[in-house]
Amino acid sequence: MGVIERVVKPKTHRAKRALEKKEPKIIEDPKQTIYIKGSKTSPIGQSCMKDLYQLKKPGGQMMQKRNEIHPFEDATLIEKFSKKYNAALFMFVSSNKKRPHNLVLGRLFEHTLMDMVEFGVENYTALETFKTEKICEGIKPILVFQGELFENNHEYGRIRNLLVDMFQRETVGQIRLQGLEHVLSFTAHDNCILFRSYRVQLKKSGTRIPKIELVEIGPRMDLRVRRTKLATDDLFKQACKRPKELKVKKKKNISEDGLGKTLGRIHMGSQKLHKIQTRKMKGLRKTPTEVKAEKKRKSLIVDEESAKKLKVVNAEAE
User: Fold this and answer.
1) Beta strands in 126-245 (DSSP E)
2) pTM value > 0.70
3) Architecture per CATH, 28-171+178-244
C-alpha cells in the first residue's frame, strides 16, 4: 500500500501564501538549486561548489550543515530538502579515498529523484584566482556545448540537458546585445567535460558590429564523469510535458524554418491573366508599336470573319 500524505491546512495568511507559492503554475518560476555538503568533503570540493553557487545566485540555497547522504544508495533526504525549499535541482559534494573531490549534480520531478550525474573535479582553479573584472549577479549566461559526444551519445545528451537546467535562468522574449556578458563553455572530450567561464567584452571595430573578446574569469575545472543515474524515457517525456494552455495551436499551411521565418502556402484557383486590368500602372502601359500591332491584328480578325460570312451567304444563294 502507498503512503498517504498528510494534507496540512494553513492557519495564517502567511502560511497560505507560502503554500500557494509552491503550487504548480502554468509558467513556472526559475528553478531553484540546493547546495548540500556530505559528511566528509575536501577543500577543493567545497570551493568548487561555492564558486558554482556564486554563478547561480540568487537562484540557490546554500545549506551550512553536513549531512550523511549517499545519493546513489538513498536519496530520501535530498527529496525531503527539495520539498522543504521548493527546489528542483541539487548539488552535492563529498570526498573519500575511492572518489576524491566528488561533485554530484541532479534534478527532481515532483520532488522525486529523476536524473543524477557524479563527477570527479580535476585541474580546478578557483574563481578568486582570476584577477579580472567579474560579472554582475543574476546575469543570464550563454551556454556553449562543444564535442561530438553531446550529439552522438545518449548519456551525454541527457547530461547536456541537465547542465542547461542547472545554469539557465528565466526565459526571455528579447535579448539586448549589451546584456550578453557571460559565457559558460562545456567541451566533451575523452569521458570528461571541460568547464570554462568567460566574460564578454565588446570593443570598437570601426563598423556597426563590435569586436568580441572573451576573458576567462573562472572558475575552471575538468569534470570527469564517474556514475550516472538517468530517468527512463517515459518519465523524462512526462517531465517535459507542457500544459495545454502553453501549446501553440498549429495553423494550417503555415510553417516556420530554422531561422525563425514564417512561411505560408497559398492555394489559388485558375487565373485568367488576359482579363486582369494592369494598364493603370505607367510601367505596364502598352507602347505605340504594341497598340498598332494590336489594331492590325483586330482588323485582320474582322476581315477574316466578314469573309467567312460572305462565303456562307453566297453558298446559301446558290
Assistant:
1) 142-146, 182-188, 192-203, 211-216, 220-229
2) yes
3) 3-Layer(aba) Sandwich (3.40)
